[in-house]
Amino acid sequence: MNDSHIHAQLHQSGRGALLLKLVELTAESPQHYASHRELAKPFDMSDRDAFYQIGRLRDADLAVPNDRASGGWRPTPEGTRIATGLQSSLEEGQLRLEHTMRAILTNLKDAGGESDRDDWMSWDLHEEGRAPVPLEDREQALDLLKEAEYTTSIDTLQASHLRIEITSRGRAVLTRHDVLLTGGMFEHGQTANFDQRIGIQAQTFHNDGGAVQTGDHAVQNITITNAQVERINESIAAIREVLAREDLDESVRTEVSAAVDELEAAARQQVETGVLHALFTKATMAAASAAGSAAGGALIQSLAAIGTALI
Predict the structure, then answer these.
(1) What is the pLDDT along the chain (311 residues), one digit of tens a residue?
(2) Which of 115, 144, 175 is the endpoint of a domain?
(3) DSSP H or E stretch at residue 227
(4) Residue 124 falls inside a structural domain
(5) Does residue 49 fall inside a structural domain?
(6) Mind giving me the DSSP string for 10-27?
(7) What is the pTM of this model?
């Protein structure tokens, strides 16, 4: 699978920023694991949301939990590699171009649908925290928008895009965040999208309008081994010991117990890994609200062992 598509999926989901922060926080020491609260703080995320998002990175083999009681997360070698490419894409690659093209369409729509050269040259197109977009990059983006029939323009031998106008196709694509305007430039043919890594199958087809995700999101038929079932059962036994502790919040106990029961039954039947990942995420999110207590921390640590067994 093309890295550019992974970068786009991460960026669109918001998990790209989380992965970059994880790499930043753990870069100085190979022994340091970042807590979910360290990761959540810059993004004003709740504990529950942070656990869910970092869990998705783990499911994609981009992050790994600490197996010690102190907990925390580190990027995997693959996670570090993907993060490096993502950073480059945001600064000078596909995602920077993608943002520039969408910013032009948005400004053009807000301007009433048309603009002359002096206007679009003055638009603030750069993403927050990134370098300004120079003229040559603006013209490249406009060339591609015109080629894809998202805009029309008046050109002369002396200058291009003297006057630009958004088309109905351009207006429509602004409502479709699942469309990559730059998809056709960086990938060719039919590919599986990023969700395939976590057991979800959805196809991406390319045309002159970019990459459009389609499909029914059916779970892939990939099942776990007997050895994985045994490891999951061992982890569930440890989880139930923690669930019996008196200092655990009762609502958390009830919700996690129900999710673990579902997970145990599904593992026994050796269902598809996508189903198991979904049930694991459900249990982890239920435990997240108790993260501040000793029992909650022990519960989350025990749950992390299941995530490791599913890899």
Answers:
(1) 578 888 988 988 889 999 999 999 999 888 889 988 888 888 888 878 888 888 899 989 999 998 776 788 999 999 999 999 999 999 989 899 999 999 999 999 999 999 999 999 999 998 888 889 999 999 999 999 999 899 999 988 878 999 999 999 899 888 887 778 886 665 543 333 333 333 323 333 333 334 333 333 333 345 677 888 888 888 888 888 888 888 888 888 888 888 888 888 888 887 777 778 778 877 877 777 676 677 777 888 788 778 777 76
(2) 175
(3) helix 226-243
(4) yes
(5) no
(6) HHHHTHHHHHHHHHHHHS
(7) 0.58
Q: What is the DSSP letter of 272?
A: B
Residue 277 located in a structural domain? yes
Secondary structure of 123-165 in HEC code, one letter for each residue: CCCCCCCCCCCCHHHHHHHHHHHHHCCCEEEECCCCCCCCEEE
| Residue 122, in any domain of the structure | yes
Question: How many distinct structural domains can be found in the chain?
Answer: 2
My answer on whether 236 and 167 are in the same domain is no
Contact 125, 104 (CB under 8 A): yes
> Hey, what amino acid is at 255?
E
274: domain range?
221-311
Pair 220, 240: CB distance under 8 Å: no
CA gap 290, 198 in Å, rounded: 26
Gap between the Cα atoms of 126 and 90, Å rounded: 11
CATH number at residue 97: 1.10.10.10
165 with 243, same domain: the answer is no
Distance (Å, whole) CA 103 – CA 127 = 9
Cα–Cα distance between 276 and 225 in angstroms, integer?
12
Residue that terminates a domain, selected from 175, 206, 234: 175
Residues 166 and 245 in one domain: no
